[in-house]
Design a protein that fits this description.
Layout lengths: L1 H33 L5 H4 L1 E3 L2 E8 L9 E4 L4 E8 L5 H4 L4 E3 L5 H9 L14 E4 L8 E7 L4 E6 L10 E6 L1
Parallel strand pairs: 2-4, 3-9
Antiparallel strand pairs: 1-2, 4-7, 5-6, 5-8, 8-9
This protein binds copper (II) ion.
Length: about 170
């Protein structure tokens, strides 16, 4: 059922008229992957008021970035891809951006109890934005407004992952 909803959302996205851009962004990502030896700074693309971020998670429980930098007020277009092959049940990954001052360990414990909601606790105000939980080979995109200047933690809320899967989201 979740897959079907996902597919519907993807089709809706294309129908809304982003079909043209869709292909372009895929090409862009391919070229980013090829240039992955370049410093991370160059991977972030900057156009008027938009920060594009390409984040991945793999089967070794690692993000490709432990720091993401954007500018205050920017629209952040974050593409998140699970570049591994393992299933969402055994090696699910997401991106959860937490409010300043959140106790990350405490959040992780709460998230681990929220299995029925894809490890996103429902009774928390700690989350600024998050992606869906992905399995190997899946990709998603979220768009949100960069919060006020400062440093924010981001984590994967799959049980046990945030020890390795976390980073700092810097708004400058
Ligand atoms: Cu994970």
């Amino acid at each position: 059922m979740k897959k079907i909803i996902g597919l519907l959302m993807i089709s809706a996205f294309i129908l809304v008229g982003c079909g043209g851009n869709d292909k372009k962004s895929e090409e862009k990502e391919d070229s980013i992957k090829l240039k992955s030896s370049q410093p991370e700074k160059e991977v972030k693309e900057k156009q008027d008021g938009v920060s594009e971020v390409y984040l991945t998670g793999n089967d070794k429980m690692k993000y490709n970035k432990t720091e993401i930098r954007v500018e205050e007020g920017d629209k952040v277009v974050l593409t998140f891809e699970h570049v591994g092959t393992m299933s969402v049940e055994t090696m699910g990954h997401n991106f959860v951006l937490l409010k300043k001052g959140t106790d990350v360990q405490e959040f992780g414990q709460k998230a681990a109890e929220a299995q029925d909601n894809n490890y996103i606790p429902e009774d928390t105000e700690a989350i600024i934005v998050h992606t869906e939980m992905l399995g190997g080979g899946e990709k998603t995109e979220i768009t949100f407004q960069a919060p006020e200047k400062g440093k924010y933690d981001y984590v994967c809320s799959f049980p046990g992952h945030l020890a390795l899967m976390r980073g700092v989201f810097v708004v400058e």
